[in-house]
Amino acid sequence: MSVIIILIIISILVALFFLAVFFWAVRSGQFDDTVSPSIRMLFDEKRHKKTNGAEKDTEEEK
Known about the structure:
Blueprint: H1 2-27, H2 36-40, H3 53-61
């Protein structure tokens, strides 16, 4: 029974270690995307027309 308690404590410590490493990586900018913004400007985006009910009403009145 004492082995299970020791294993649970060790697994919690390992999980806390990995959580701390993850937060450190996020705060230090390891997951910042520096490549996509420079590539994104090379591609044209398809633009969709947005229509709402007010525009349709004014067209029908004419």
